[in-house]
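quick one before i forget lol
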Amino acid sequence: MIARLRNFGSFADGSGRLLTVLAIAVSLAAATVIAAIGLTDRAEKEFESRAALQVTYETQLFEVFTRSLLQRFDQVLMLLREEVLEDGPPADIATWSTRRGVLREPLFQIAVIGADGKLLATTENASSIGVDLSDREHFRVHRETDADRMFISKPLVGRASGRLSLNISRPVRNAGGRFLGVVVVSVDPQLFSDFLEILGEPNNAVVNLFGQDGIIRARAPSVPGRQFIGGSIAGFEVEDRVKVSSEGTFRAISRLDKIERIFAFRRLDDLSLTVLVGKNTDAVFADFYEQRRLYLTIGFVSAAFIIGLAVLFEIYLRAQDRIRVGEALVALQNQQSTDLIGIMDGCGAALVQTDSSGQIVACNSTFAIMFGIADRSALVGRPFDSVVAAGDLTAAQFGQFNRIRSAAAYPVRFESSFMPSDTTSVRRDIMWSWTQSKTGIDPTIRFIGVGIDNTELRAKEMMFIQSAKLASLGRLAATLNHEMVQPLNVVRLGLANLKTLIERDAPKEDLLTRAGKAIDNIQRTGSILTRFRSLIRQDRNAVEIAQLADAIHAATGMYEEQFRIDGIKLRVETDVACELECSRIELEQVFVNLLANGYDAILRSRSHGKAVPGSSQRPPDIVGIRIERDSGAPEIVRVVVEDSGGGIPADIIENVFQPFFTTRSNAGGTGLGLAICRATVESLKGTIEVSNAGRGARFVVSLPIRTSAAAAPVSA
């Protein structure tokens, strides 16, 4: 045994040497990858440096392009100002511009504004002559300062042209310096996008023109659905850079369109403008990406080759060592099994070890005692299922065992129940936990199970459930009170009407009708008591095939007399026939509660004196209930209940279905009616929704219909 363990030690020494070889191989592979990464970093910096120079050059070109455009526009302004000083504003600027050789395009408008801010002449809509433009920035700047300089305004929509434009203007002053007005040309901001055609890269570059106030004057190309012109660069990186330097380059992700670019800018202080050109890094680094892919591929392939050789070498040496140490491992496993049995005997829980087929390899005395077996050696070799299934119980009481065919199929945790062989009156509930065990490189897999007897714990748990059930009787009593008030009120009112009819010697048929309604509501009260008694016993109400229309008629019959007495019109529409699988009593109670809510809402609305605006009289009060079908969902039927009670306040409409939420606490409301309605409807796999519509609230109950048989006709 000692010699075998020494051989095992030499195997461990060999493994250490192999790990050293692997470490060297990994180091060489890492060095190869690092070298490849270093080459890619160097190439990236070179590409970025060349791109920065290119963008800087393009920014200089954009500056020349911008100055050239503005110089052309300024020449138009100088000619127009000379005309105004000599002969006054031209009566027809369009003719004047043609005579002077001034091209209209790309100019939107050529205009003259008087000293009072009124439009004196324009090439656009003649009806705009006289429009007050004194609030425009390009007018106020020249009126409030004495400088004779060209001014470029923020982008705005022209009142004469009706288009987004940049207003380029100069002041008009006589020889004595008196302010006479402003001459203006309006241009399309997209005019500056022509520079992209000059670059030949409209898809990979972007140009911006913004003022010292941070407002974007022009940007190209435009993005569909996004308006950048007129926006602000406040908070952008370029804002901080322009403040400290007149030109520069940087790399950043644009906050306007989330695209990474290399930017270059130049500040034009004489024009109070800054030009900015950016180039998409995907285009800049397109060739670099190919080089990087090549460098990294070579580096990783080389690293994988080096590591692969080391792994193959290690596998070869381990295969040689496996043969040498195999016997030592078998002996070691046998010793471990012996030690495990000793440990298992000292444990208070039931421990069992099986092989992959579910055969018991070893178990402790607690396991044998738990199942009433005196000699635990008799269990070795037996299937685990045959032991836990001892006793005369059905397979369903064995938990998972009737579906298990091997130890490998055991769940991590499961419960089992059985009758010990020495008794027939006490059932044991055992909680099992399983884990897999594998020693070294031994292919034999063992499963170890730990069982704890939780019979007493389960009994205490059932006592706690019963206590919680009794504690809920107080809440059920409040619900019962709410359920019983409605039918008993109908019985009380019906008997009072019956007494009045008897005193008036009314016909026998009327007396029998009133008495019949009272009896129906007394029977409803008994049904409600039976339902709550079933609820206390945790029984389910019997499911039957019910006509939806019959349930609605039964519910409306309870309120028909009361609605008539209080002058409330009850509108019932049940022309749609359909059947439901439900408890009809519960379904009727849903409609009874919704009708009761409408009735109470109308009475409250009357007490508050609500009326239609502009009308001196209150319109008729109505509670309606109708059945609707949706052609788009033939398997669903909707019941709509509406009233004219003024609706539900918007701040509480989302809370009306919460238990114990009520706005009628002073009037005896419990806040359980709508909560019961929602619970009942959801138990039928339906939904209930509430909203305000017309003059009151609108409840919509959607229920699945019974499609296995044709619906019977609705009774009259």
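fyi The chain is about 45% helix and 20% strand.
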